[in-house]
Amino acid sequence: MTDLRRRLNAPLVAGLAIMAALAVVAIVAPFTLREAADTLGGAPRSAPSAEHWLGTDSLGRDVLARSLVATRLTLLMALGATALSAIPGILIGASVWFGPRTLRNLVLRLIDSTVAFPSLVLALVIAAILGPATSSAVIAIGVAGIPAFARITSNMTASVIHSDYITTARLLGVPRWRNFTRHLMPNIGGPLLVLGASSFALALLEISSLSFVGLGVQSPDYDWGRLLSEALPSIYSMPMIAIAPSAMLIIAGVGAMLTGDGLARHLDPWSSAPARAPRTGTVTTTAPRTSDLVQIDDLRVTAANGTPLVHGLSMRIGAGEIVGLVGESGSGKSMTAMSLARLQPDSVTVEAATLRVGDLDMRKGGRRTAMATDIGLIFQDPTRSLNPALRLGGQLTEVLTVHMSMLRRAARRTLVDGFERVRIRDAEHRLSQHPHELSGGMLQRTMIASALATNPRLIIADEPTTALDVTVQAEVLRQLKRINQDDATAILFISHDLGVVEALCDRVLVMHQGSIVEELTSEQLAARDVSHPYTQRLLDATPSLSLTDARQEDPA
Ligand SMILES: Nc1ncnc2c1ncn2[C@@H]1O[C@H](COP(=O)(O)OP(=O)(O)OP(=O)(O)O)[C@@H](O)[C@H]1O
């Protein structure tokens, strides 16, 4: 219950409240107010009074009662038209991606040409062909809205249909309809709900417009559009007659948009993740030293829904030091590193008492060149950091040409030197290749070469060896160690593997649930001299395959 209350956001509550109130009016008003709304013979065009709150129309009928009674028909028509647009539109837009390519291209071209045609004009043409009637208005607006749903669904499907999880599901023989409901819809459902809500608001206006020009609801029935049409002759003398249905239209439109916006937020996995209680007992790492390159004090990273992802974290990295940041998946290692490099996701808030790399205050923007050249980044999966459509030379020299004003030729020369340094043979040729033409280990080495090209003072390596096989992993670690020794480059090395960290780092910080729980020197780690139970658990989970250990375990 508390979970549901926390997940209901303000727009959703407001939108649902408005739509629920309108639903009550739509159900109750035709039963209770029909007589006041339809009875002729009262004083025509009377001013608002205690008996008729918004006055009467030209035939003496109560204006407010008529607007409220018209709610049911108007909402049902808008709902019908939206369903008529959404259901076929979504089915067409998604199913084209499950069929043959030629059919897909043909259907997409057709959709494109209909989308280019204004939907209200299309609806007017359809309504004129079908003749004036309530059903004609619904069909016209519904059919005119199909291309928009089909186009957007198709665009969104295209962005997820080639993702690994759908390919895997197809390879595993998951039926198409199940792929559609299980993998596709949850990924595209949020934006479609928002589109549905805005289409409903638009359908309200368009159906009212058709009724207003006489192509929609016909007498004796009436919707808000027809009421507006009836109000037109006396709009200056009796504005109330027009104001009442207009106000209803605006309220319903706002209610629909708020509901759509709220639903989208509600379905956003990041904004609905459960809040985690901050843990106490965090460790502040060694006191400030003048040689500290990185200084972080009281770093707090908070998700959009208020969940603390990193809290009260402080750390130092000395110039030329290799510091390991270890912890299980989700403990906040990447979030800490990305916040330090000012590359955190937009959806989170970063606050800190101090966040410095050298003389750069990373809490402030600006000084982009200094940020780009002082900090080198190496990520876990090099294929995701490189643009597959561009040659390596073009993309890896960018930082040198943009931030260090190097000419293209000089930038390439620097990169070739860098490639040779990380033992990539035939470097010139490699620069003219695309990322897919290199192995994973080679790509990771190109990333290291590129991160080093600007002579950074700090390298942030976020699980740089996780995606690599053990031999390549050892080579990459050796490269990092060599760079640190040759150039005194500081390294923040992120890993969940204490064994790897032990081999490389001078100091290790153990992270758990968003804060540092223990700090160890490499000697303490080698001697397994740890005090926090979480560190002990991490050590227990680290397989040891060193020769010494193997001999000890197996005396034979
Ligand atoms: N964009 C985001 N918005 C909100 N929360 C996020 C976002 N990205 C990650 N998180 C959450 O922040 C927390 C820390 O994530 P982080 O990626 O820093 O973990 P990690 O220790 O680096 O894990 P791993 O070793 O798996 O990379 C996790 O609970 C994660 O779910």
Blueprint (SSEs and pairs):
Layout: H1 2-7, H2 10-32, H3 34-38, H4 63-95, H5 101-115, H6 119-130, H7 134-161, H8 164-171, H9 176-212, H10 224-231, H11 239-267, E1 292-302, E2 308-318, E3 322-326, H12 333-340, E4 349-351, E5 354-357, E6 360-361, H13 368-374, E7 375-378, H14 382-385, H15 392-396, H16 398-403, H17 408-421, H18 427-431, H19 440-452, E8 458-462, H20 470-487, E9 490-495, H21 498-504, E10 507-512, E11 515-521, H22 522-526, H23 533-540, H24 547-553
Parallel strand pairs: 3-9, 3-10, 7-8, 8-9
Antiparallel strand pairs: 1-2, 1-4, 1-5, 5-6, 10-11
The chain binds adenosine-5'-triphosphate.
Residues 270, 303, 309, 327, 329-335, 345, 347-348, 496 line the site of adenosine-5'-triphosphate (ATP).
Overall geometry: elongated
User: What fold name goes in the CATH topology slot of the largest domain?
Assistant: Rossmann fold
**Bound ions, cofactors and other small molecules, one mention each:** adenosine-5'-triphosphate
Number of strands: 11
Question: What is the radius of gyration computed over CA atoms, rounded to a whole number of angstroms?
Answer: 33 Å
Report the sheet with the most strands, covering strand number, pairing sense and barrel closure: 6 strands, mixed
Q: In CATH terms, what is the architecture of the largest domain?
A: 3-Layer(aba) Sandwich
Unreliable runs, pLDDT <50, ≥5 residues? 273-282, 545-556
Q: Any idea what the CATH superfamily of the largest domain is called?
A: P-loop containing nucleotide triphosphate hydrolases
DSSP helix count?
24
Q: Please state the average pLDDT score.
A: 82
Strand numbers in spatial order across the main sheet? 7-8-9-3-10-11
State the separation between the terminal residues, measured CA to CA. 61 Å
Keywords: ATP-binding, Cell inner membrane, Cell membrane, Membrane, Nucleotide-binding, Translocase, Transmembrane, Transmembrane helix, Transport
Protein name: Dipeptide/oligopeptide/nickel ABC transporter permease/ATP-binding protein
Family: Belongs to the binding-protein-dependent transport system permease family.
Main location: membrane
